[in-house]
Amino acid sequence: MPLALRITVLANLLAGLTADASSAQVFRHCAARDTVVGRLAEKYGESRQTIGLGTGNQVVELYASAETGTWTITVTKPSGETCLMATGQAYEPVAEKLRAVNENDA
Fold this sequence. Notes:
Strand order of the largest sheet: 1-5-4-3-2
Shape: flat
Helix content: 10-25%
Structural class: alpha+beta
Radius of gyration: 15 Å
Oligomer: single chain
Number of helices: 2
Largest sheet: 5 strands, antiparallel
């Protein structure tokens, strides 16, 4: 599955979750897109790595920094509001090739 599609699927799954005090990595903080992108760049050195279109014409993006190892998944609503959906550490870019599906694997 292409990385952008995997991120879109992950973001859609995360969109159904609600944050609680015991879940420090899954949350929803929203602001204007320029504000969110600026803070990710300034505070964490993160830049956009992938982009995809999710349900309801929401734009799903992965921001990350190879230097700091941090990553952030954002969802931007059609209204322009951008929400942080998940964050983490140990970012590592991968470029996996799809393998052929073998009937015996099913």
